[in-house]
Amino acid sequence: MNPPLIILVRPQLGENIGKAARAMLNFGLTELRLVAPRDGWPNPDAGPAASGADIVLANAQVFDSLADAVTDCTHIYATTVRKRGVSKPVLTPEAAAKAVHASAGRSAFVFGPERSGLETDDVAVAHNIITVPINPEFGSLNLAQAVILLAYEWSKGQALASPPDVPLAPPAPHEEMEELIQHFVRDLDEAGYFFPADRRASTLRTLRTTLTKTGWSHNDVRMMHGIVTMLGRKRRDRT
Question: Which keywords appear in this protein's UniProt record, sorted alphabetically (predicted)?
Fold first, then answer.
C-alpha cells in the first residue's frame, strides 16, 4: 500500500511548508512535492517550523508545474473549498482516505497557495475534489491544518502509535468513603455548618450524595482527609 503524496502548489511561505511537513510526519507521510514555491527551495524558514520533520524537507522534490509533479500518479485529489467551474466528483477527507486505501497505484493530495488556493487549471488536473465540511460562516483553514486533516484521515488505516491506555485507580471501598463522610460531618458540626437544625438531615443527605458519586480512589480519599484535617487545624488556630 503506497502512502499518498502531498503536493503543495505554489506555496508562499517557507514556514508554512515546514508546518505542512510536520503535519505529514505526525501521521506517517514522508513524500512531499513542491510546485514552483514562491521563494524557491530550499527555504531557511521551513526547517524551524518543521520541528524535527527534517526527513520530509530533505527529500522534498520541486517541479515547475502540477502536471509534472503527478506524472507517476494514478489518483489525484485536489483540495478546494469550491468546484471553481470544474465538474469533478466531490469527496470528504474521510471518503478520499478510504478511496486511497482501496486503490492501487500512487495517490496525491494536492493543496493550493495559502492566499488563493488552487486555480481552475490546477483542479482540472485532478480526478476528484476534496472539500472539508466546514462552518459556512467561517471557512478559513490554513495550509498545515488542511494537510493534517487529510493525513489524519489516511492514518486511520495504519498501525500508528496510539495514546497509552493508563488504567484508572479503582474506586475506594464504601467503608473508606463512609469514614471520609464522617470526618466531614465532625468538622462541619464543630464549625456550625449545619444551620438551621431542622435542615441538618437534608444537608447531610446532599453531602453524602455529592461525595459518593465521584468514584474517588483510595488515594483521593486519603488526600481529602488531609485537606479536611488541615482546614480544621487552621480554624482552631485562629480561635
Answer: Methyltransferase, S-adenosyl-L-methionine, Transferase
Domain assignment present for 165 = no
DSSP 137-160: T-----HHHHHHHHHHHHHTTS-P
Residue-level pLDDT at 56: 96
How many domains does the structure of the chain reveal? Answer: 2
**2 close to 127: Cβ distance less than 8 angstroms:** no
**Helices and strands, number each (H, E), in the chain:** 10, 7
Same domain as 28, residue 143: yes
Residues 28 and 118 in one domain: yes
What is the average per-residue pLDDT within 45-51? 95
CB 78 within 8 A of CB 129: yes
Instruction: Note whether 109 and 16 are same-domain residues.
Output: yes
> What tens digit of pLDDT does each residue of 154-165 get?
998 676 655 566
| Domain identity same for 183 and 212 | yes
Position of cell 500512487? 106
Question: Could you tell me if 182 and 209 lie in one domain?
Answer: yes
Q: Give the closest residue to 174 by CA, choosing from 207, 203, 216.
A: 216
Condensed to tens digits (0 to 9), the pLDDT of residues 91-122 reads 999 999 999 999 889 999 999 998 888 999 99
Quote the CA–CA distance of 118 and 69 in Å, as a whole number: 15
Query: What's the CA gap between 232 and 190, in Å, rounded?
Result: 9
